Amino acid sequence: MEQASNSVVVAIILVVFTALFYVFFQKQPTTPSTPTADKQPASEQEVVQGSPVVFRGNLTLDEVARHNSPTDAWIIVEGKVYDVTTYVDIHPGGDTILNNVGGDSTEGFRGPQHPISADDVLATYYIGDVTGS
């Protein structure tokens, strides 16, 4: 009888430990930092989660071209617009990020100098898509 009650106690301890482990060490789901086609921000001024920039929606090439300085730097990569102003000073490649500021930086961004993880960093600066001219 004592052996059976010991087994029950051990089983209860294992269940409690497993539950605590699950609660404290469960990987929290992550949300994408860039809006997807089926879930756009509610308004133009909604801040993209985890991002230092404001989502602006569809932008023309002319609008992007006006943001062409180290203190106001927008780039286009594969048709998406990124406000990298706050990243300019910490860019590991120095001022090379400014080579095509205000325009299409796809070729430079896709160069061999960038690891795949550069896409994750870039995604946090996403502000919209290029449309028309």
Could you tell me the mean pLDDT? 77
Low-confidence segments, given as residue ranges, are 27-50
Distance, first to last CA? 83 Å
> Which percent range describes the beta-strand content?
15-25%
What does the radius of gyration come to?
23 Å
The count of strands amounts to 5
Instruction: Tell me, briefly, the overall form.
Output: elongated
Structural class: alpha+beta
**Major sheet details:** 5 strands, mixed
Q: Biggest sheet, strands in spatial order?
A: 1-5-4-3-2
- How helical, in percent, are the residues? 25-40%
Q: Give, in order, the helices and strands.
A: HEHEEEHHE
Q: Number of helical segments? A: 4
Describe this structure in words.
The structure is a single chain. The chain is of the alpha+beta class. Helices cover 29% and strands 15% of the residues. Strands 1-5-4-3-2 form a 5-stranded mixed sheet. Strand 3 and strand 4 form a beta hairpin. The protein is elongated. The relative contact order is 0.17.
